[in-house]
Amino acid sequence: MSIQPNTPLSELAAEAKAHLRHFYDKEATLVAAAPGRVNLIGEHIDYCDGFVLPLAINRHILIAAAPNGTSRARIRTTCDEEEAVIPLDQPQEILAPKWSHYMRGVFEGFRSRSIWPLPGFDAIIVSSVPNGGGLSSSAALELATATLAEGLADNFLDTKEKALLAQKAEHDFAKVPCGIMDQFASAFGKKDHLILIDCQTGEPELVPFHDPDLTILVSNTMVSHDLTDGGYAARRKDTEDGLAHLGKSSWRDATMADVEAARKKMGDRVYRRSRHVVGEIERTIQAAEALKTDNYSALASLMAASHTSLRDDFEVSCAELDLLVEIADEIGFEGGVLGARMTGGGFGGSTVTLCRTEHARDIAATLEDSYRAKTHLTPQIFASRPVQGAHLL
Ligand code: GLA
């Protein structure tokens, strides 16, 4: 089976409710769901005031909950044995288990907005977002938690504020200095739309994507990454140094000529990082235009250039990601591939392949067979259409 089926939300909800009954002997009164995301183009530039073009995918984190009449949350996930017990009437601390950091960070966001204390509850988390697949399972957990907290408090935040609250949770409690892409995608996702986010203004623009002849394939290398291990923060620091060398306050005011002029004083590494940033901002603007005008040959070149730049200049790809992209490139336009590249933070994770729906099965089979032949790993491949962002079921 090359293309894996996506579990419908109703099935995930039934699973979570059954676990809630089993572990806490309660019927769920609230069910919150938030999707993961895949980014079509615009990588590692959300923290550089750039543009990004993600979509919310048909893979979710879902939380089923019921009040427990106390001032604590008791939470279990089907991915771990350990239960998290979190007080909801005092400042949040970074305590085990690790997955609870994201939730504690979100609760702290509600506390700092005086939506506090939250009523105590018991909950079960289930997930169809592959962990470590570069598909923002952490943002999905943050947004599902925030959506659940909104429901518990009966106090609903503006979508942008909710996404920013989740991003701060990731910064302060998971210690990943991420940009705004993942949380925005999970919060603002809309059925049949990509989200073009202007990361300078923080404004999302919806780009229609409903042509049934187009399919987005996501291929997980099964090589895991950890954004807390320093590679991500180091890249972010390099871009800050690059901008300082340019003497500008925003990458949006920088041109490739500026970067070339500053090449010597930047040094090779910061120069290449800077070249990626300026090039990727331009490519993302052009890619959104190419999509709006059905110019798929232009889109394919832009996605290819993005991958090359992430591999050589930004150095966040890896052999497994490169291999999946090479296999897709070999299949090429004739074989129905309209573009392929690594997606997300990198250092493992997934690739995104835009393809003709009629060829999707064959493309997935070739990706799986050729990848397995060279790595002895079976990639997890699924197709996704853009779905609705975080919501209560
Ligand atoms: C991770 C971060 C995002 C973004 C991407 C790279 O997913 O969480 O903010 O920087 O990497 O584009």
Question: Could you characterize what this model shows?
Answer:
There is one protein chain. By secondary structure, this protein is α+β, with helices and mostly antiparallel strands. Helix content is 42%, strand content 21%. The protein is built from 12 helices and 13 strands. The chain has a 6-stranded mixed beta sheet with strand order 5-4-6-3-1-13. Residues 43-44, 46-47, 136, 178-179, 181-182, 344-345 line the site of alpha-D-galactopyranose.
Shape: globular
Give the structural class.
alpha+beta
Mean pLDDT: 96
Fraction in helix: 40-55%
- Rg, please? 21 Å
Residue fraction in strands: 15-25%
Q: How many E-type strands?
A: 13
Number of helices: 12
Bound molecules: alpha-D-galactopyranose
Q: Give the CA-CA distance, first to last residue.
A: 30 Å
Low-confidence regions: none
What is the spatial order of strands in the main beta sheet?
5-4-6-3-1-13
Sketch the topology as an H/E string, one letter per element.
HEEEEEHEHHHEEEHHHHHHEEHEE
Largest sheet: 6 strands, mixed
List the helices and strands and how they pair.
Blueprint: H1 9-24, E1 30-39, E2 51-52, E3 54-67, E4 72-77, E5 84-87, H2 100-112, E6 121-127, H3 137-153, H4 159-173, H5 181-188, E7 193-198, E8 203-208, E9 214-220, H6 231-246, H7 256-261, H8 263-266, H9 268-292, H10 296-312, H11 319-331, E10 337-343, E11 350-356, H12 360-375, E12 380-384, E13 391-392
Parallel strand pairs: 4-6
Antiparallel strand pairs: 1-3, 1-13, 2-7, 3-6, 4-5, 7-8, 9-11, 9-12, 10-11
Helix pairs in contact: 2-3, 2-4, 3-4, 3-5, 4-5, 6-9, 9-10, 11-12
The structure holds alpha-D-galactopyranose.
